[in-house]
Write a structure and sequence with these properties.
This protein has about 525 residues and is an alpha+beta fold. Helix content is about 35%, strand content about 25%. Helix 2 links the parallel strand 1 and strand 2. It is globular, with a radius of gyration of 23 Å. The structure holds flavin-adenine dinucleotide (FAD). The site of flavin-adenine dinucleotide has 39 residues, from helix 2, strand 8 and strand 16.
């Protein structure tokens, strides 16, 4: 069911039936599984307690990568799978997953000699069956990246990985699944699991959390999949299982390119503690992170960066780019996410493995851990487990995970004022739905401030992308909340004129949404 006017009510009226599969959680894990279930011809429903991708899947470092740090921790399997997935996704998701050059800088404070990293890159390239890295001395490195004025720079390496818009990747998977016959509903929380007399999970009580209407439905399903990421232990607890996850918070700072002018990503070992950190060009800005802190048990939807993390991240940048004289005033926004990491009790949270796990407990199938990059592998393993429950299903793991965009599609999109890069970007975001986008975009095909979004994307998101609250629109569909000062407050008059009619909000509702958005932004996305 497409997310057009009135879709939520139509979706709620359909919940009361027996589904083959009920997926709980609308992050990358749930979206990937939904996609594979639809491919397999299953009757499948996904419910998300908050907005799609509002959990960890909109709060990553935006990398589709092998993860050199995992190689260092001898997590060979996860690195190999991730490198292979990166190559696959680069081909499949052109324009949404983009190849990106990285510079690794060897610093005087490094706890290991630079050649160790070079050796890691050799393995990395062998895994991808390519040879793309090379070393540079300090002078050449500075030529490639003039802001690298750290005293005692020892040279470094260039290599390639990829980046993406994490929330949009989730959304593309969901939309294509929905177009293929699946049902995905945000603001629908599983309150309680239903169990047979024998204690096997057979469905769930789902409650509407949109705040618009009070309703709940008992949903029956032959298989229930717990894809709730860092929150997975909560549902597992309902079937009597002990916690197995260790939620680890990671935070980022976002800068405008004017303050942190990077054309390639720069990575280095933080002078305090030696953990790798990344400054990654993203959507016309630069995202810098991340941290690794045990988060404890207070698993809120919108975690916030701590003062210690802010200080740690800023001091790392000040050390490597001293001439930029970066201060807290230059930080446009911050964001934090909770890694769903399987707890093996390691003293250092950074040493915990990023592998995924599947547990079958009293009929509840939990899929957790892993990475954004490896979502397809997690989904494939989940489908194998589903097959054990449902018997033979038409599941071909080789079916492309994203729908192909016809090669001639960009010729459909007339507006000459858009560059080829802009067209590709929009095609990759909307898939085949881009045709509708262009036919309704009207005169709003110009960029919003200095970010690569177009004003017309706001209207499109409000019209057809399942937006329920203002932060869905500004934090995950069109990510102005991260990219513009004060979360985009200065642009709010024009945003309002475009989206209020589409959302059907009266003035009182608009004001309520704006107040909640401002409060959320100050609490979870501001520096200091
Ligand atoms: C700081 C940081 C940086 C990272 N960087 C990268 C990176 O660069 N590359 C990479 O590959 N990976 C990265 N990762 C890892 C990656 O982001 C996560 O592994 C992935 O997003 C987890 O997705 P998920 O769908 O399992 O969980 P989530 O995205 O958290 O989704 C789970 C969803 O379940 C919902 N939910 C919870 N309870 C219920 C309920 N009762 N009913 C209904 N819904 C419920 C939640 O609201 C949530 O939206 C990073 C992680 C962090 C924290």
């Amino acid at each position: 069911m497409e997310w057009t006017k009135g879709w939520r009510d139509r979706a709620w009226s359909q919940l009361d039936q027996v589904w083959d599969v009920l997926i709980v959680g609308g992050g990358i894990t749930g979206a990937g599984i939904l996609r594979q279930c639809v491919h397999a011809g299953l009757r499948v429903l996904l419910v998300e307690a908050d907005d799609f991708a509002s959990g960890t899947s909109s709060r990553s470092s935006k990398l589709v990568h092998g993860g050199l740090r995992y190689l260092k921790n001898a997590q060979i399997k996860v690195t190999l799978e991730s490198v292979q997935e990166r190559e696959y996704l680069l081909k499949q998701g052109r324009g949404l997953i983009n190849r990106l050059g990285f510079l690794y800088t060897c610093l005087p404070s490094d706890p290991m000699p630079g050649w160790v990293f070079g050796a890691g890159l050799t393995i990395y390239d062998i895994m991808a069956r390519q040879w793309s890295h090379r070393s540079y001395d300090a002078e050449d490195l500075r030529e490639l990246c003039p802001p690298l004025t750290v005293p005692g720079l020892r040279g470094g390496y260039r290599y390639f990985d990829a980046n993406t818009d994490d929330a949009r990747l989730v959304l593309r998977l969901l939309r294509e699944s929905v177009a293929g016959g699946g049902l995905a509903l945000n603001y629908a929380r599983v309150e309680r699991l239903l169990r047979t007399r024998a204690g096997q999970v057979c469905g769930a009580v789902v409650r509407d959390t949109s705040g618009d209407i009070d309703r709940q439905v008992e949903v029956q399903a032959r298989v229930v999949i717990n894809a709730t990421g860092a929150w997975a232990d909560s549902l597992r607890g309902q079937v009597g299982e002990k916690p197995r996850l260790r939620p680890i918070r990671g935070s980022h700072l976002v800068f405008s390119c004017a303050h942190l002018p990077l054309t390639r990503a720069v990575t280095f070992l933080h002078p305090s503690g030696g953990l790798p950190v990344f400054a990654v060009p993203w959507e016309g800005a630069v995202v810098f992170g991340t941290t690794d802190c045990d988060h404890g048990t207070d698993l809120v939807t919108d975690p916030a960066i701590s003062a210690a993390e802010e200080e740690y991240l800023l001091s790392g940048l000040q050390y490597v780019f001293p001439s930029l004289e970066l201060t807290s005033a230059d930080v446009v926004s911050t964001y934090s996410g909770l890694r769903p990491v399987i707890n093996t009790g390691k003293a250092d949270p950074s040493k915990e493995s990023r592998e995924h796990a599947i547990w079958e407990e009293n009929g509840l199938l939990t899929v957790s851990g892993g990475k954004l990059t490896t979502f397809r592998i997690m989904a494939r393993d989940a489908l194998k487990a589903v097959r054990r429950h449902l018997g033979r299903i038409a599941f071909d793991p080789e079916t492309p995970v994203l729908d192909a965009i016809p090669p001639a599609a960009d010729a459909l999109f007339g507006p000459a004022k858009l560059t080829a890069a802009q067209r590709l970007r929009l095609l990759a975001r909307y898939g085949i739905g881009a045709a509708t986008f262009f036919s309704t975009a009207g005169a709003d095909l110009e960029s919003i401030c200095d970010v690569p979004y177009l004003w017309a994307e706001l209207r499109q998101a409000a019209r057809a992308e399942g937006v329920v609250h203002l932060d869905d629109l500004l934090m995950r569909r069109v990510r102005l909340g991260l990219l513009l000062p004060e979360g985009g407050m200065q642009q709010m008059a024009r945003i309002r004129s475009l989206v209020q009619p589409e959302l059907g909000w009266d003035d009182a509702r608009w004001q309520k949404e704006l107040d909640s958005y401002r409060e959320l932004w100050c609490k979870s996305y501001r520096f200091g």
